[in-house]
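The passage that follows is intended for readers who have already worked through the single-chain material. We present the inputs for a multi-component assembly, then the predicted structure in tokenized form, and finally a short commentary. You are encouraged to pause after the input and sketch how you expect the pieces to fit together before reading on.
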Amino acid sequence: MFDIDRWREIFQSINKNRLRSVLSGFTVTFAILLFTLLFGIGKGLQNTFKEEFAGDATNSIYIWSNFTTIAYKGNQVGKRIQFKNDDFTFLKEKFSTEIQTISPRIQRGVEVVYKSEKGAYSLRGVYPEYQILESAEIIDGRFLNTKDIYEKSKVVAIGKLVEKDLFGQLSALGKQIKIGGIMYQVIGVFTDPGGDNDERFIYTPFTTMQRLYGNTDNLDEFGITYNPNLSIDAAIAFGVKMQRALKDKYNVSPEDQRAIGLNNYASGNREVTNMMVGLGILIFIIGFGTLIAGVVGISNIMVYVVNERTKELGIRKAVGATPKDIVAMILQEAVFITTISGYFGLLLGVGILKYAGPSLEKYFILNPSVSTPVVVGATITLIIAGIIAGYLPAKRAARIKPVIALSAD
Amino acid sequence: MIKIEKLHKSYPIGKESIHVLKGIDLHIKEGEFVSIMGSSGSGKSTLLNIVGLLDIHDEGNYYLNGELIKDMNEKKAAILRNKFLGFVFQSFNLISYKTALENVALPLYYKGVNRKDRLGIAMDYLEKVGLKEWANHLPNELSGGQKQRVAIARALVTKPKVVLADEPTGALDSTTTDSVMDLLKEINDEGMTVFVITHEEEVAAQTKRIVRLKDGIIVSDELTKNTKQASHV
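Having made your guess, compare it with the prediction:
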């Protein structure tokens, strides 16, 4: 029911009692503002965690070899364990269900020359599957393929920053570059969400590298992505099993933590998942607390407002206002103020997040933002709180006998 | 117009209760100009509040315009007040953030009169009390006498049957007291029943009937010479 006269009464009351209206609105604005900022910052922290893990496939496991630290089955301390090509087939067959993709890797520091430009980079000999592990994305040309592996082609896919360093604004695609004295053709340029370091890698077929550098069947490590259907616990167990199998194969003590190294992203995932849950709970508690504080604030102010207006309400009753008129007037005013100031707080919060967001990145807060339903929900909660908070004192005020209200000076 | 039979009223104060009105019988006919006299604590304000439906009585009967006031709920009381009664208070009781005109128009708002009409009617009444030029001033820009005239205009605007005035001159000096009393007399001359509560003899002397109250009972009820003069005329 739209009653222009009642609205006029309310606007007059709000307008002529500006301090009171602004103060009550301020509580709501402040509550919604805090709520928005808090949720935004929480969201930003979550985004940061997600981003940290976006650099590589989240189901990656890296496994590499090193020197032994415990003497075992005839192996002395300090023996260098060296993975060979047959380990690739060994792992691939033994863990065929757990492994999604697997690629061996050899890595060397190399000097790269193109015309007058030169620089030092890491050259990695890998299988095409390695692209998945790095989450690398081709922006020009293509990544390595099986044919390159088979033909041991002297081709490379280079990171975006390598192209920028050596070619400036020009395209590297199809150009010949000299790596460690040998000419390679650039077949692709990639970008990598892992950041600058990951975009300074140069990838060449594993077989090419093995042949050109040493001509052995040695390799440095394996990059594996596990079957994404595995639970986190199963994935962690799988990593340990794989490590154990390789230890057995190379007569390494099960207690030797160094000879065969393992980095399983699943354990990190678990920590991040737990942390996200913890963070979520924290945000929820603080957000809820802020709302409660806001509700208490509104309630107090409504009690104060009604008290302050007792006399006015008494006059209105003496000249013919029914209790319903009184309650409706107070409530309508409360809801109006709450809605407007809640919306204002929301705008303010979103504005601050937008404005200050970029400068917060160094504090691990990335793209802080709030979802509309959350904030609208919070505002509605406060409006309802305003109604309840206003209703009780309004009802009481409407019940006070006008004679008592009028004698209250 | 107002008929009261054996009216009792007590107020609880803590565990005790104070018996304020101890059986009042009073009959006020239409067009009368009555004053209730009494010192503070005599129960005169309580009587006015009951008559004005601002408070409820414990025992006895109260007829307003022939209607028995019983089991009043707030809504019914509000409607009856709006319809039959106009109030003038000692402390004026104007709404501070409303102009004189808006204050006068307020009862019409609760009566459901549309804005244009009620402002027009309110302006007529302000003119009647001589404050047309002050229509758009806030109460704190008016003198005490002016405020009380605004309050009287507000009491009259719904064309009530009875105007109830609680110490209408209590906060005024003698000059303004006279002007307010003249206004009330004028209203009474037009046929309105006026019911004044006061503790000032000079004020009571200007009415047509004085009812003296002491410790909750009526000690005297007599017509003044104003009435006799009026009846002689």
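Commentary: Chain B touches chain A through 30 residues (CB under 8 Å). Chain B has a mean pLDDT of 86. How closely did your sketch match?
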